[in-house]
Amino acid sequence: MAPAAVDFDGSSSSSKTVCVMDAGGSLGSALVHRLLQRGYFVHAAINSHVEMQSMERTIVDKKKLRVFYTDPLDYHSIVEALEGCCGLFYSFEPPSDQPSYDELMTEMEVRAAHNVLEACAQTDTIDKVVFTSSATASIWRDPTDSSPSSPDFDERNWSNVNFCKKFKLWHGLSKTLAEKTAWALAMDRGVSMVSINAGLLLSPDLTITHPYLKGAAEMYKDGIFVTVDLKFLVDSHICVFEESSAYGRYLCFNHVINSNEDAMKLAQILLPSDVSSLPPSMMVGESMMVSQRISNKKINKLMVDFESECHI
């Protein structure tokens, strides 16, 4: 079922209440602020008490905000945060004491996705789930898998799990298995779900150690190294939630790193003191331009009316 339209007359209604997990991250925090601006009541699910205090300090109008301490591995805490909500915006960020992706992180992320979708299935008021995944759940495949008839990538593609394991592409493996787990449960339990497969988020805290960047040189050479601005990513999430025609997966990015100039600009963000640390294959040849082999047409088509509305 599609979410009910949001009205802005200030009246209280459970159909206007949504939950954001993890509300403490860059995406989650921005989503909370934007949803409040659009008139929603928001349940902000935070993973730590430090994040809870930070969230409460940054919100000016707290009348439409409730903050919950929620562990994605604790089913009951998820159910509590979802109570009375018509929708969920879900994203997973590694715990602060486990910042890197590995096999253990993959297991944790899959368990979290399972818990969250099961909790949504048991919450009668939930009409729609927006599940934040990653472009890395679509772009990794064994070169022998490709054929002349399907040389490019879009949201119909899934990363090859065995390929990710072989080359220790843990971010791609985690996002692929977690998203597949979510889709399996959503279809089995009858939960309406849409996924946003985001490119690398260009946030202020982005560093060269971000797990998305494992294999950056290969992504660059293949024309599939994509990034997304925070505003575009937030708008995309809200758009697919509010638009009743939204369905399936959406590759979400608004820039492709496919030239040396692009690579240098990114290097200045990731390595402000030493751009020479960027992989040589991304730096050689000033005029080099790699052909783009990944499409975001589906999200762009859906966003046309949403963007027009935002500028009225």
TrEMBL record:
Q: Sorted alphabetically, which keywords does the UniProt record give?
A: NADP, Oxidoreductase
Q: Which residues form the signal peptide?
A: none
Record has Nucleotide-binding as a keyword:
no
The record's annotation in SUPFAM superfamilies points to: NAD(P)-binding Rossmann-fold domains (SSF51735)
Chain ranges of the NAD-dependent epimerase/dehydratase domain: 23-205
Q: Supply the CDD domains for this chain.
A: FR_SDR_e
Q: What is this protein called?
A: NAD-dependent epimerase/dehydratase domain-containing protein
Q: Which InterPro entries match?
A: Epimerase_deHydtase (IPR001509), NAD(P)-bd_dom_sf (IPR036291), NAD(P)_dehydrat-like (IPR050425)
